[in-house]
What does this fold into?
Amino acid sequence: MSILTRYLIRSHVGPFLFAFTAVTGLLFLNAVAQRLEDLAGKGLGIQIMGEFMMLSLPHIVALTFPMSILVAVLYTFSDLTAQNEITAIAAGGVRPVRLLFPLLVVGLGMSALMFYFNDRVLPESNHQLSSLLRDVGSKSPTFELREEVVNEVHTGDDSRYFLRARTIDQASNVLTDVVIYDLSRAADSRIIVAQRGEMAFTPDMSDLYMTLSDGTVFEVTDDRPGAFQRMDFQRQILPLRGVGAELDRRTGGGTRSDREMSIPMLREQVENNLEQLHGIAEESRVLSRRTVELALSMGPSAERGTGERLSPEMVETGPGADPDLDQAASMHRINQTRWEVHRLNVYRYRVEIHKKWAIAFACLIFVLLGGPFAVRFPQGGVGMVIATSVGIFFLYWMGLIGGERFADRGLMDPVLAMWLPNLILAVPAGYMALRMGRQISTNRGGSRWDELVYRVRTLPGTIRDRRNSRVPAGPEPTV
It folds into this structure.
């Protein structure tokens, strides 16, 4: 490895690590803030919260890793050009385009790393995060009661209880002046009033047993309108099932969505849906043949038992249609719906396969695009780097999301939908890379950020002037 190659790679390490850390941290905090509503009031421990944060990180990394590569290339080449280092290298006999070769090799390694991450790490983390959120979503809120407030108590069997107590001792779990509204049975309404109550959980922290002392039960039932039953007690135990504060983590893999599958899993799903499509096609062919045979057998030459010939209206489906033809038409409609479902599934899984490849290959495209662009406009500084990287990545990501939506609906081929943003960026990247040696700018004006803005503003006028210059002039008027 030459000195120049080591110098170029070393110059990119710092900006890449800084951009990756900063952007990942910002997006990570935003993602955690959005999910706090789903986690609040669940009584989750530090271990569960830490697991949630760790599982949320890979999805952020898949977004920020390619963007950090673009930021690093833009910043490094902009700084090298602003310090006239690119000019010095060109004066030493090294073509500027050759500076991209070692970075393209590094970008190829980054693309391979990104592909492995998207195919192996990201699907598994998405699956574990989805399972964790399902477990948290099905968990009852933490059993915390407040004094002088009507507290709703959630149970695992969907029974409805409301509890009010004058005082609650959190240390001994003792309540005084307890009122419990039992609405667990739709036909009955029961109110329990007790002077004292004591709470105790089962060893597995799943069920709560409330021991009430010196109280009265008032019960009203629909079987006896206008009457109620009163019962005094000295001690009564009320079980509340499934109010535990411990999170119940389910075991087993469960079902996976397309974003929770690796490429072998996705290909297996594609093959399964293709087999279903072939089966539906064969079933539809057999059904169509039988329908035609049935219609021909009931044609004008065929007679019913009563001697009435089949009219054309009775071949159609509807109230007056023949039951066999009506059933065949219904089966055709069902097969058509099944065909569409499996066809869209094939598109959806193929989109996810090519998206893994396309995002990984984008790392190489960003290296090829960022270097020549930064060399042409070196004095934009950090503002140019941020604005350009955000703009390029925004356009790329919007194209990727738009293509995915079109392909998921069956309106666009999955290969074209996922690779089109890369192809759109690859064309100007290749063009600028070939002209990199002829567009080196220095600190002496003509290459600042304001020039880029000026060029964008005057682009329509430039195109119009060039078009007018190509129009042949008419004959000169004669005198």
DSSP finds ten helices and six strands in the chain. The CA atoms of residues 125 and 188 lie 47 Å apart. Strands lie at 151-154, 160-169, 174-182, 188-201, 208-221, 228-240.
